[in-house]
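so the lab meeting is tmrw and i was supposed to have these ready like two days ago... anyway. pasting both below. for each one the top line is the aa sequence and the line under it is the structure tokens. i havent really looked at them closely yet so no promises
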Amino acid sequence: MLTDTQKREPSAFATALRRFRSSRRMSQLDLALASDVSSRHVSFLESGRAQPSRDMVLQLGAALLLPLQARNGLLQAAGFTPAFPASPLDSESLSPFRAILNDMIARHAPYPAMLVDRHWTVLEANASARALLDALGGAGENNIVRMMTQSPQAEALVANYAEVLGELQSRMQMEALEAGDDPVFAELLGMLERACARFAPASAATPRRPLLPLIINSPAGALSFLSAIAHFGTTEDVTIRDLRLELLFPADDQTRAALAAL
């Protein structure tokens, strides 16, 4: 039988479960229905009065639509080993996948291509993407959000800076919601919110475009790009599931000609 102290002090799992549920804006009843258990049982799990089985933790993680990394964290909080592998990107087991990524990035030249993690930190980039990042002030900084919000060069380099910031904020809000309770996402979103607040009145009055380009001021003139982002979902490896491959394509003939001349 649990003591009064144990009842008053929820376990690490109980605390994590409540945080994830709250970040999803789900009630205990919502989670109970999604995970096919009683709301009473969810309440007992969150108070520490009941301890979950390994299968129950996985069931709750699936019902909360948590990313694999967060499901591993929930398992560990409950005292279980992680269910999903998290292989280093340079590990032998991921070498076939890494070869595919390298080929995709190389074949995209002369157009920019970069590989980023779930927090939009650049892991790999081809030469044209690296040139853009260097111009953005990326020396010593590899996170896209930090570069866009903190680099003194960002606003002068990106011709439609306010629009791009707003789009990045919307994208990060969706990804932060998917990630659940993630302090790094919270920090990055705070940076974006403060940066976007400078342009809020003007941005609200600007008509929405059906396609939002990234327009770069360059010595060759304005270079306009459209972005395609690839996710890799046919795997249960945490590292691969957290990757995004961003490919920039010329949005007009002037940009296409300028890049072909490089």
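ok protien two:
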Amino acid sequence: MKLDIVLGSELMPLYEKVVRGERLSAADGMLLYQTPNLSGVGYLANLVRERWHDNRAFYVRNQHINYTNICNKFCKFCSFYAKKGGPKPYTLSLEEVRQRLRAYRHVPITEVHMVGGVNPRIPYDYYLDLIRTAREERPGVHVKAFTAVEWEEISRISKKPLNEVLQDMKAAGLGSVPGGGIEVLSDRAHAELFPKKINGARWIEIARDIAQAGLKQYATLLYGMGETLEERVDHFVQLRELQDETGHFLAMTPLAFHPEGTELPDRPHTSGEEDLRNIAVSRLMLDNFPHIKSFWIMNTTAITQVALWYGADDVDGTIHEYEIIYQDDAPGVKQQVITRKQLIRLIQEAGRDPVERDSLYQIVPPREEPETEKPLRQPLLLPMSKV
């Protein structure tokens, strides 16, 4: 292969840096976003991806619990929170949470992922009981729960410093912390799009507390909502510097903005080109993040397959069931869940080797499989904005 044909003179200096394992600069990040040579960017990202993980592609069997859609932050990019003309408000009782967990008790999931809106009426004990309930219903499961903005609220209602709250939650069974709580680390975007949420500086402070508590964390970038390319690159640079300091981040998940039901309905959907480019740039800029994830429910299973050659090494998981957004994989079809067999086929069709992992990226040994991964009972159905 003639690299000058694939990369062109524009990307060859970045190739030399990648080969040497040299850190890319913010200017390099801007070039990766602005060059029309998407294939070249993907080629560079794949070099780094295979340096980390060879031909392996990871997946997890997980279940999502979105415990409330009541939220007092009113972010312009969000369609999930309850509002007039939108989703009706709900907060799951602990019994409803148990019902949802029991619906998939025959599936050997390893992770329960719990996030929700910021509902100021929820007491502190409810959050502890959410974790305890998941651990009681699924002994041994890893609980990944609460974004940074939720942690800010939980600490407020507990009247305790966050480091004490985190220890309480660990004692209840918390295993790690998901990404989210900040869409992009930009004061401008914060003021324009989500001013009632914590700002970037506070998000970083919370991430430091999480690291000091001995917990692993994930990170995200929501792109396509009106942030600039410079803000995306700066987001990666700030995360990279924080990871240099703490070493506690496991993975980055670039998330595509979906405008339906939000206060930004005229914003266009992200294209496949944008989805692949954001995954590739995140892989190249975040040289100290072990994993880059393509979240199939937000960028489609087809894009996720291609993403496995554009820097992604993880396709997330079975989901069981996600309510923040619904993915159209065919006209009129809203997909919330994918089976293990489908995930394996998705990865194999892309030419990668599927590997089941747990929340901390430890390999899960093969187990006897259930005949179906469909729920044993119809899960509680709630009115959502995208149905």
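from a quick look at the 2nd one: Residues 3-20 form the longest helix (18 residues). Residues 325-335, 377-387 have pLDDT under 50 and may be disordered. will dig more after coffe
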